[in-house]
Structures are given as C-alpha cells and as structure tokens.
Design brief:
Chain lengths: 114, 115
C-alpha cells in the first residue's frame, strides 16, 4: 500500500494563479484532511471531509476550496494564489470519524507563491 | 478554545542522553493526546497516543509519554536518544468524543542530537 500520496511535491506560482493540490489514499479511510504547516506555527487545519460527499471548514479555510471526489481522493484548490499561501501542505486520512482514529499523513506539497 | 503549548522551540541533546519534551494543553475536559514526529522533508508519523487508562503510554521507537491531569501535561520521554531521533516533534490534542474535525497541534520542538 502506498498510504497517502500527494502531488505535486513542489510548486511555484505567481500571485493570482490558480492550482489544485491532489491527495489520494488507498487505505479505504472515511475521513480526509488538509493542513498547512508554517514555520513556528505547527500544523493548522484548512478543510476536512468526515466522509465521502461531505466537507467542512477548519481553522484557516479562507482562500481555499476542496472537493471530495470519491472515497479515495480529496483535492485542495487555490483559486487566486497569494504570497500568504506560501506553505507546506499536508493531506491526511483516518479510518473513521472519531478522532481516536490515527491520522496518516502524506509527504507534503511545498508551495511558493511569488 | 483548546490550545497546545510546547515551551521549547529547540532542544539539543547528546547522543545516548535522556530526553524529555514538554507539552501542556488547555482544554475544558481531558482531550485525546498525541505525539507525532516529522523527519526532515517527510510527513508526520504517530509516535503514541493517550485516550484513557494507564497514564504512562508506550510508543514506537522507544518513546513513552506520561499524562498528568493535575498539570495538564503530556510530556514525551526517551531514556537514550539516537542520532536518528533528530527531527521535529509535535504534540496534538483532539476533543474527547468529538467528530472528525481535525487535530490541534503545538508549534513543535526541533530536536538536535549532538555526537
């Protein structure tokens, strides 16, 4: 099993450009998450999807949209990138909707917005 | 609002020495508690977790953590560190009985191992 995969690994955008970060898991997990990691800030939740067909805002959703395409895939879209969105983005998944379930993380996407 | 504090941004330890990383949380009820490790350029890996019961929790890679309700703490320990333990360590909490709305992370402690 590959676990949680993310594409791309690195991306450089200009201000105002759009892009979609892709995430897929092969563990048949119900819940999926998008976090961003900034120096000295830890990880902060952007959006999550408790189950296929549902999405909810996390702590820092502004400037982002998400799509739970199917049970495996959860994408994060930046419609008009801003320098403040320069960050490392992590996707995670967990088996169920309880936070007792371990979250498994992907390797991350390093995004720079110029 | 729940919060997690990791007071030490950086810690330097000699190889073979013992290690303790501190974590304090602020929450109305005892949350679920986690420690994650992030090696350079990698995603996060779960070291251990506490839900209830025995307050001393064993994890992977020789790590353990002790939950102390009176101090709202969940400190991570290892008796003897190895150079491969150099990484970023994150404490995280989740509301007991909550849904799938994600973890709240501390800002992390960067562990440096001296030879």
């Amino acid at each position: 099993n590959a676990g949680v995969t993310q594409t791309p690994k690195f991306q450089v955008l200009k201000t105002g450009q759009s892009m979609t970060l892709q995430c897929a898991q092969d563990m048949n997990h119900n819940s999926m998450y998008w976090y961003r990691q900034d120096p000295g800030m830890g990880l902060r939740l952007i959006y999550y999807s408790a189950s296929e067909g549902t999405t909810d805002k996390g702590e820092v959703p502004n400037g982002y949209n998400v799509s739970r395409l199917n049970k495996r895939e959860f994408s994060l879209r930046l419609e008009s990138a801003a320098p403040s969105q320069t960050s490392v983005y992590f996707c995670a998944s967990s088996e169920g909707t309880s936070l007792r379930n371990e979250q498994f993380f992907g390797p991350g996407t390093r995004l720079t917005v110029l | 609002a729940q919060s997690v504090t990791q007071p030490d941004i950086h810690i330097t330890v000699s190889e073979g020495a013992s290690l303790e990383l501190r974590c304090n949380y602020s929450y109305g009820a005892t949350p679920y508690l986690f420690w994650y490790v992030q090696s350079p350029g990698q995603g996060l890996q779960l070291l251990l977790k506490y839900f209830s019961g025995d307050t001393l929790v064993q994890g992977i890679k020789g790590f353990e953590a002790e939950f102390k309700r009176s101090q709202s703490s969940f400190n991570l320990r290892k008796p003897s560190v190895h150079w491969s333990d150099a990484a970023e360590y994150f404490c995280a909490v989740a509301p007991r009985g909550g849904g799938a709305d994600g973890l709240t992370f501390g800002k992390g402690t960067h562990l440096i191992i001296q030879p």
